[in-house]
TrEMBL record:
<dbReference type="Pfam" id="PF00153">
    <property type="entry name" value="Mito_carr"/>
</dbReference>
<comment type="similarity">
    <text>Belongs to the mitochondrial carrier (TC 2.A.29) family.</text>
</comment>
<protein>
    <submittedName>
        <fullName>Mitochondrial carrier protein</fullName>
    </submittedName>
</protein>
<feature type="repeat" description="Solcar">
    <location>
        <begin position="184"/>
        <end position="266"/>
    </location>
</feature>
<dbReference type="InterPro" id="IPR018108">
    <property type="entry name" value="MCP_transmembrane"/>
</dbReference>
<feature type="repeat" description="Solcar">
    <location>
        <begin position="299"/>
        <end position="385"/>
    </location>
</feature>
<dbReference type="InterPro" id="IPR023395">
    <property type="entry name" value="MCP_dom_sf"/>
</dbReference>
<keyword id="KW-0472">Membrane</keyword>
<keyword id="KW-0677">Repeat</keyword>
<keyword id="KW-1133">Transmembrane helix</keyword>
<keyword id="KW-0813">Transport</keyword>
<keyword id="KW-0812">Transmembrane</keyword>
<dbReference type="GO" id="GO:0016020">
    <property type="term" value="C:membrane"/>
</dbReference>
<feature type="region of interest" description="Disordered">
    <location>
        <begin position="1"/>
        <end position="22"/>
    </location>
</feature>
Length: 400
């Protein structure tokens, strides 16, 4: 997922649209993923502060792919056990009572109160996946996930940026004369999110299918999960792909991107005000100032934690029932490939009621929010570092 970043100005501030004049001393440069270095904010003739002026020239695709791959690999590897736990909680059979252990039988005799709901669910979860709580099981599906997710993320990111660039090139009214966003940016974001999901579905759907089957112990490894897909045939895989993309992936991407793009200008302004309070300290300082990776990460963390974390939080909450149904469909079709979404929904409702569709929602919110809060700052930091080094080498070559 592409986000903006900060980078040093090479030729001073570029004058924005709307008649605002750029300041003579280049301030901290605020650039989107699709921009050249431009002024983060400008002063008008009365000393007031103008809006953000953003061009629509996208950054180097190689840098985007590399930064996205690094951020994806680190984030998914660290947080994969949360994903596994989320998948298992969603598939928990609450209608099956685990056998009572001797110490638990003694507690029932000595205690007048029945065990709480949380303790009961933990016992059921532990019983349903007995012997499958080792690190190897918790990280099950991670090799498949990384194998598919890195090219998927690169495809998704480039598709999203390409569509945004195309739409902004066709419709120049994405911002009004004052530099503020109009309603068009929402439709641009929605169209770009849908286009990116459709283009990258060929990589995401097989990856998610194999990963969830491994996590739920219905497949005993990557080769077993791949064998299941092969035996079920292309038609069955297509029947899995269409509801996943339409029912879950597209709604999630739309909610997340619209929320993130809406919050991003506010976080930029908030960061600029913090820099002014610190005496005008610039994030993009001078080209001679040395920047470490962790310094960049620390600066980006606070700003992107809000926008990235909140966008992931909102999207995960609103699509929790859809994700639950998707997980159940993917796992249930291992036994019967002819099952439909309607069959799974009907069976879930008859056995568990409406609660079955929100089971695992808390774990999903925790996992997605943590994932977004880690991914966005890491992506921006890696990309900022790569852009800074590229600009340094360009300046060095020009001076020599």
């Amino acid at each position: 997922m592409l986000v903006h970043t900060e980078q040093p100005s090479l030729d001073g501030c570029v004058e924005g649209s709307g008649g605002m004049s750029a300041t003579t001393v280049p301030p901290a440069v605020t650039a989107r993923h699709d921009t050249k270095p431009t002024c983060a904010m400008t002063d008008d003739a009365h000393g007031g502060r103008g809006g953000y002026h953003i061009d629509t020239l996208y950054a180097d695709p190689e840098i985007i792919v590399l930064a996205s791959s690094v951020a994806t690999t680190v984030t998914k590897s660290v947080l994969h056990p949360l994903d596994t736990l989320k998948c298992r909680v969603q598939l928990l059979r609450t209608d099956i009572t685990p056998p009572t252990q001797p110490y638990q039988r003694y507690q029932c005799y000595t205690s007048q109160q029945p065990p709480g709901l949380l303790r009961t669910r933990l016992r059921q979860l532990r019983h349903q996946y007995t012997g499958q709580w080792t690190p190897g099981h918790l990280y099950g599906g991670l090799p498949v996930k990384l194998l598919f997710y890195v090219p998927y993320q690169a495809t998704y990111v480039l598709s999203y940026n390409c569509m945004q660039q195309t739409l902004q090139g066709i419709d120049r009214e994405g911002k009004d004369a004052a530099g503020h966003r109009t309603a068009n940016y929402v439709w641009h974001t929605v169209a770009a999110a849908v286009f990116a999901e459709v283009v990258s579905a060929g990589l995401r759907v097989p990856m998610e299918t194999m990963k969830m089957r491994i996590q739920s112990a219905t497949a005993h490894g990557s080769f077993d999960a791949l064998r299941q897909l092969w035996q079920q045939g292309f038609a069955s895989c297509a029947r899995l792909a269409v509801p996943q993309v339409l029912m879950h992936d597209i709604p999630y991407s739309i909610i997340q991107w619209v929320t993130y793009e809406t919050l991003r200008p506010w976080t930029q302004q908030w960061k600029a005000r913090l820099e002014e309070q610190r005496g005008g300290t610039e994030l993009a300082a001078t080209s001679s100032a040395s920047k470490s990776f962790w310094a960049l990460y620390g600066v980006e963390l606070a700003r992107t934690l809000l926008s990235g974390g909140l966008s992931g939080l909102l999207a995960s909450v609103l699509t929790a029932p859809l994700d639950n149904i998707r997980t159940r469909v993917v796992v249930a079709t291992v036994r019967n490939r002819h099952l439909t979404v309607t069959d799974v929904v009907r069976d879930t409702y008859q056995r568990e009621g409406m609660r079955g569709f929100v089971r695992g929602g808390g774990m999903r919110v925790l996992w997605v929010t943590t994932n977004m809060a880690c991914y966005f700052p890491l992506f921006e930091s890696v990309r900022s570092l790569l852009l800074w080094r590229e600009n340094e080498s360009r300046l060095t070559g020009a001076s020599s």
